[in-house]
Amino acid sequence: CPLQQRHTTLLRLEARAEEVMFVTNVASGLVVTAEAPSFESLQGEGEIKVVIVSTGNVVADFTVGLANCSTELTAAPAV
User: What CA–CA distance (Å, rounded) separates 6 from 21?
Assistant: First the structure.
């Protein structure tokens, strides 16, 4: 059954250390679109939808955050 809404959960994986490799890649990207639907002031939350295309030579995931917000906005952690 497909999920109708977003769910957050914790997952614990255990593996022997000699079998694990942690790789971090840095890639360039291009912001294709960014949308911020209307929201009520003092609501304490809002959403922004950003579409980013990787332009680098490696597969990459991107984390988007807001910085240098005006005094009316407060940046929350990226989800």
Answer: 29
